[in-house]
Amino acid sequence: MLSTPHERMNFMTLKLNEKFLNGFVAEHEMTSMEAQVRTAHETVLARSGAGSDFLGWVDLPVDYDKEEFARIKAAAARIRKMCDILVVIGIGGSYLGARAAIEFVHSPLYNTLAKDTPAIYFTGNSISPSALSDLLKICEGKDICVNIISKSGTTTEPAVTFRIFRELLEKKYGKDGARERIFATTDRARGTLKEFSDKVGYETFVVPDDVGGRYSVLTAVGLLPIACAGIDIDAMMQGAADARELYSEKDPAKNACLRYAAIRNILYRKGKVTEILAAYEPAAQMFCEWWKQLYGESEGKDNKGLFPASVIFSTDLHSLGQYIQEGLRNIFETVLDFTSSADSVKIPNDPENIDGLNFLSGSELHDVNRTAMLGTLFAHTDGGVPNVVLEIADRSAYSFGHVVYFFELACAVSGYLLGVNPFNQPGVEAYKKNMFALLGKPGYEEMRAALQARMQD
Ligand code: PA5
C-alpha cells in the first residue's frame, strides 16, 4: 500500500488517454462544454441538484462511521474464523459492488484458489431454483455464515433466499448458533429486515439513508464481504479518499473525471448512444456489471440515456468483435487498460517452433495482452468507433477505491449534463409491484385484478 501522502501524490492511479478520440471529439467541443460541466460538478458538490438527498457517497471516503468500520473488521475476522463459506444474499446495488471488488482485487476464481479466507458465494440475485439448489449442495457439510444485505428489506429475491438460509442455519446450529453466524446489512432504523434482526439479535450494519444502492460499495454493503475476503479495506477507502481530493479540481480541463463526463456527453449528442466498457482482464467482468448498474440506473430515464454495455477482450473479440468493427455506428468504447500485472507468465521457447510462435518466445503474456489492446484500438477507431482509454495502474484495493470514486462522480456529473435525476430509479419499481401483485402479496389486490384482466385480453 502507498502509505505516505507524498508517495500517493506521485502515484498515478488513473490516467485518461484521449489519443483514440482523434477525429471524433475536438478540443473546441470540449472547451464549449466547460461551463456546463463546471456547473454540473458544482451542483453535485453543493448538493443543490435533483436527488441531492442521495449524495452521501461524495464525502463517504473521508466522512464515514469509524466505529462501524472497526466493527466491520472485527465481524470479518470472526467470520473468517467461523466458516468455510460466507453466503452473501443481495441483489443490484446490494450485491454487485462487493463481488466486483473481490474479483477485481483477487480473481474470478477466488473461491477455488488456495486461501486462508472463506469461499464467498453471492445469492439472492435471481429467482432460479437451479442456482439456489447448486449453492445449497455446495454448502452441505461446510460451516456457513450469512450476510443478508437489503436496504428496503422487502426485495423478493434476497428475502426469499434469506428465509431458506435462515432455516438451514437454525437447523444446523440451533437458534443461538445461527444468531452468531447471521449478519444483516440494512436500513439504520426502518424496514422488515431491521425489525426482524433487532428482534432476533443479529449484528447489524447500516446502509446510510443518503447513499443509494448503486453507490453503496464503500459502505458496509460492500465492505463486510470485501473484508471477509481478506482485502485491505483501509487501502480501498484511502484510494477513494485520494480520488475525492483529486477530482474536486474545479477546472474541467484539468480534471480527468470531468473530461470523461464531457466526452461521453459529446459522443451521445453525436448519436453514439451505446457505451461499451471494455477490459482485457476477466477479473474486471463483475466490475463492468457494477458499472452497468451505476450508469444504467442513473441515466436511463425520461426517455434518455446512454445504454451501458460491456465486453471482456480478447474473449469477446471472437463474438462481439465483428459487430463493434462493422455494425451500427452508434457505439463508443471506454477501455480499462491495466498497465501492470501482478502475475508474470512468459511464453516458452520451442526449439522446433512447430506452431511458428517463436517470435513470441520469452514474451510476457501481459505485454501480448496490451498489444492485442493496441491493435484493437487502431482497428475499432478505423472502423468508426471512438475509444476513451482509462489507464489504471494495477488491480490493488487502493486502485479499486480510486476507480469506483472516479466512475461515481463522473456518473453524477453526466446525469446532470443529461438533465436527469441521477439518484432515483423509478423504473425498477414497476416490475417489483407487478410481481408482488401477481404473487398475491396483501395490499396489491386491485393491481392483481387489473393484470389478470389484461392476461384475458
Ligand atoms: O439501485 C437500487 O436501488 C437497486 O438496484 C437496489 O439496490 C436493489 O433493488 C436491492 O434493493 P434492496 O437493497 O432494498 O434489497
Q: Can you walk through the features of this model?
A:
The protein has 457 residues and is an alpha/beta fold. 48% of the residues lie in helices and 12% in strands. It has 16 helices and 10 strands. The strands form 2 sheets. Strands 1-10-9-7-8 form a 5-stranded mixed sheet, with helices on both faces. Strand 9 (331-338), helix 13 (365-382) and strand 10 (387-392) form a beta-alpha-beta unit. Helix 2 (27-45) crosses helix 10. The longest helix has 26 residues, at 156-181. The N and C termini lie far apart (63 Å). 5-phosphoarabinonic acid binds at residues 91-94, 150-152, 155, 158, 212-214, 297, 425, 428.
Question: How much strand?
Answer: 5-15%
Strand arrangement, major sheet: 1-10-9-7-8
List the ligand species.
Answer: 5-phosphoarabinonic acid
Spatial extent as radius of gyration? 23 Å
Shape by Cα distribution: globular
- Total helices: the number is 16
Key features of this structure:
457 residues, alpha/beta, 5-stranded mixed sheet, 16 helices, 10 strands, binds 5-phosphoarabinonic acid
Overview in brief:
α11 packs parallel to α14 and α15 (426-439) packs across α16.
Draw up the topology in text.
Blueprint: H1 5-9, E1 14-17, H2 27-45, H3 66-82, E2 85-89, H4 96-105, E3 119-123, H5 129-139, E4 144-149, H6 156-181, E5 182-187, H7 192-200, E6 203-207, H8 220-228, H9 233-246, H10 256-269, E7 274-279, H11 285-299, E8 307-312, H12 321-326, E9 331-338, H13 365-382, E10 387-392, H14 397-418, H15 426-439, H16 445-456
Parallel strand pairs: 2-3, 2-4, 4-5, 5-6, 7-8, 7-9, 9-10
Antiparallel strand pairs: 1-10
Helix pairs in contact: 2-10, 2-14, 3-8, 4-8, 4-11, 9-14, 10-14, 11-14, 15-16
The structure holds 5-phosphoarabinonic acid (PA5).
